Amino acid sequence: MKALVIGGGIIGAAVAWRLACERVAVAVLERGRLGQEASWAAGGLIAPQGEADRPGPFFDLCMKAKQAFDALVERLVRESGVDPEYDKYGVLYVAFNEEEREELKARARWQREANAVVEELDAREALRLVPSLSRAVLHALHMPTNRRLDNRKLTQAYVNAAVRAGAEFREGACVDALVTSGGRASGVRLRDGSVAEADLVIIAAGAWSGEIRGLEGDSIRFFPVRGQILCFDARPGILAPSLFSTRGILVPRRDGRLLAGSVFEDAGYNKSVTLGGIRHVAQAACELMPALSQVAFREAWAGLRPATDDLMPVIGPSPTVSNVLYASGHFRSGIMLSALTGEVIADLAMGRKPVVDLGPFLPERYRSPVPRQRFKITEV
Ligand SMILES: Cc1cc2nc3c(=O)[nH]c(=O)nc-3n(C[C@H](O)[C@H](O)[C@H](O)COP(=O)(O)OP(=O)(O)OC[C@H]3O[C@@H](n4cnc5c(N)ncnc54)[C@H](O)[C@@H]3O)c2cc1C
Fold this sequence. Notes:
The protein is an alpha/beta fold. The chain has two domains: 2-77 and 151-222 and 309-367, 3-Layer(bba) Sandwich (FAD/NAD(P)-binding domain); 87-147 and 223-307, D-Amino Acid Oxidase, Chain A, domain 2 (2-Layer Sandwich). The chain is built from nine helices and 19 strands. It has an eight-stranded mixed beta sheet with strand order 5-6-4-14-15-16-13-17. Helix 1 packs parallel to helix 7, helix 1 packs parallel to helix 9 (334-349) and helix 4 (57-80) packs across helix 9 (334-349). Flavin-adenine dinucleotide (FAD) binds next to helix 1, strand 2, helix 2, strand 13 and strand 17.
């Protein structure tokens, strides 16, 4: 079988690795350079209990995605020669006022009912865990089994492992359209007019997945949601657990960098860093950890989360072109969902039943009108 993956971000690379492991002849077509879009811009949290806001299929998917990482990460390091720095320090989600405390208490309740590990801490206990935490914190949830990693290294790890397993990656290869006849794709047409043939096509083009012509009948609207990150030169070990509040996150890297995020903006395909974004992220970061105001600022960047109308990933077969699979729309959780997405796409390609129930994530849900989920746009 010959498979073409459109898009060389973390999802395309994870899919290529798993397909190559199945001895599928797989090529990834990336219009720019590998892993330089959302997958480069992310914070790197593998934090199902922070990302999902309610119980249900998406939370279950996130929990399974985290388990997929646990099961896979050593093999990936071995097969790629790249250590993605999968750290085991957990997440601390904090509340600064009564309303946030009530929200966290409710979160702890439904997460416990769903068998997730969560500990409720008062302010003193939270400070003991994170001495640099703000004295204004009232209450916190500790999620000790949530994780983080370096998403840029993880993308490289998938690429290396895929290449070693036989996958091919082509940079500067922009796909314009599917070449179809009789409801099947025989390949794709590139912007330079050339055609690449395939038995199977995987759409992993992130926020641009809707631009590939030939899938209009699937009626899926993909759109970008901008995020901005500030990076500080702190010192290794400055923070053990990653921090969450309703206004921001702080994620340390092993080399001492500290990432502060983020915002959710409707800015089209504009990847600028803005003063409003910087101000919002800086305020939220200093609210979490006041000493950060004295730490050297290093750089800032922005990236585009790939979203769809119900803010859930789109994974599975196209309803209109039978040999096309989607692996797109991972919104704010694509790093976390990458390992599981690769596994599921390989299952589908090989005709196996996927390890998760894909029902709520199948592309065919967009054949009837799907109510648009409003995400909270950050006021910057
Ligand atoms: C600021 C920020 C923070 C985030 N933090 C986290 C986090 O902590 N944890 C988490 O799990 N997720 C996080 N995310 C979300 C995560 O980054 C994304 O969900 C994930 O990177 C999506 O991966 P992707 O491969 O689908 O998309 P991308 O990385 O955007 O890759 C898509 C690729 O497709 C290529 N492409 C597009 N069109 C074509 C075409 N026509 N032909 C060929 N190639 C094409 C693009 O050039 C690009 O390289 C964050 C995102 C942002 C922006």
